[in-house]
Amino acid sequence: MESTITAMQAAKGTREPGGVLACVLLAMVAMAGPLYIDIMPSIVAALRAEFGLSATQAGFVAAANGYGSTAGALLALFVVPRLPWGLLATALLLALAAADVATTAARSYEALIGLRAVHGIVGGLLVGLAYSLIAQLRDPRQGFGILFVFHFGFGGIGVLVSVFLAPLMSHGIVFLILAAFDLLALFVVPLLPAFTQPGRSARAARAIDRPRGSGLARIAGLFLFQAANLGLGAFLIGLGADLGHAPAFASFAVGLGLGAGTLGAIAMLRLSGAFGWRPMIPVMLAAGLSKVLVGIGHDPVVFAVAVSAIFLTMAMALPYAFALCAAGDASGRSSVLAGFASKLGLSTGPAIGGLLYPLGPQVLIGAAIVTVAAATILFGLSLRGPLHHQRA
């Protein structure tokens, strides 16, 4: 393990570019593909209220988006190293915007399934490309931390905007919000630093691979953690209604909760700099336990606090999880595999959540907590040894 850490540090020293500006620009592009995840509660609510779908149908439309992303993330392993990354990013962002606009015109369940699956494939490719670039940064923890600051910040804004603009545009406003961000990210691509073409250093990266057991534990842990997060998160607005809250208030609480996620990602950057990997397991445990509060959220204040606690702790844990999966791989291949595991979890979560939701809120909440606990155990096992004590 010591030799692995030495090799990781050597690779880390050669990573270029670095700095906050590079992280911010890259985060803007990286979040365009999976932004739908951040506003998934609004998407599921819109699919039910505006498109007339049942809870199960809405869950499967969300799952189609997620499984498409999973396929796209897998394709990224083969596509990203073979095409110029700047041209590829531009083409993918244009395709994302087109798919989001087309969704607003869909009128059938089958059409929605198809459009969101295509959107997912394109978005998964973009995520694979972006994560492989983040792996080239001097500190991937900083890169992923800033990425999730943007994820939760813009996700909160998206949810709140969709609440206030819904009366003005009754069909598909949430998908137009996604399209607007796709175009915003498109203008950022020419401003990105001169990254190395991803995959070019794959041979060197294989020389510093982690032990297989640890790598598999991390990938499995990320899958379970993401499945639990979105399996519950996609139905937060519906759970709020079940607890007696108006849909507008539940949406507002989710928007504010995503804002708390921004604070969580910022806190992770500070914790990571001061304590290295050591806070990761306590933070993941807190992300699981915070979900208990939703089940007792009959009071509006308690519900709002519960939602904020979920997103706060989730935003602290996710950058750690992604950075750990990417540790020691400047080629970005491990990051792409982590993206694949994440997408598989995010697509599986809403599908299973849609099946568990009719059984009652407590069943869905309990399943999410147990799944997070299993993910925490896997990450804890993978952190044994010198890596756990590293500060940087």
Structure report:
There is one protein chain. With 392 residues, the protein is mainly α. The chain has helices spanning 2-13, 20-30, 35-38, 40-49, 55-79, 85-104, 109-134, 140-165, 173-188, 202-206, 212-233, 236-242, 247-275, 280-289, 300-326, 333-356, 361-382. The protein is globular and about 50 Å long. It starts with a helix and ends in a 10-residue tail after the last helix. The model is unreliable at 1-15, 202-211 and 388-392 (pLDDT under 50).
The helicity comes to: over 70%
Alpha-carbon Rg, integer:
19 Å
- Give the uncertain stretches in residue-range form: 1-15, 202-211, 388-392
The average pLDDT value, as a whole number, equals: 81
Q: Beta-strand level of the residues, as a percent range? A: under 5%
Number of helices: 17
Biggest beta sheet attributes: none
Count of individual beta strands: 0
- SS content category: mainly alpha
**What form results from the Cα inertia axes?**
globular
- H/E element string? HHHHHHHHHHHHHHHHH
Cα distance spanning the termini:
16 Å
Write the layout of secondary structure elements.
Elements: H1 2-13, H2 20-30, H3 35-38, H4 40-49, H5 55-79, H6 85-104, H7 109-134, H8 140-165, H9 173-188, H10 202-206, H11 212-233, H12 236-242, H13 247-275, H14 280-289, H15 300-326, H16 333-356, H17 361-382
Summarize the structure.
Helix content is 76%, strand content 0%. The chain is an all-alpha fold.
What key phrases describe this protein's structure?
mainly alpha; disordered N terminus
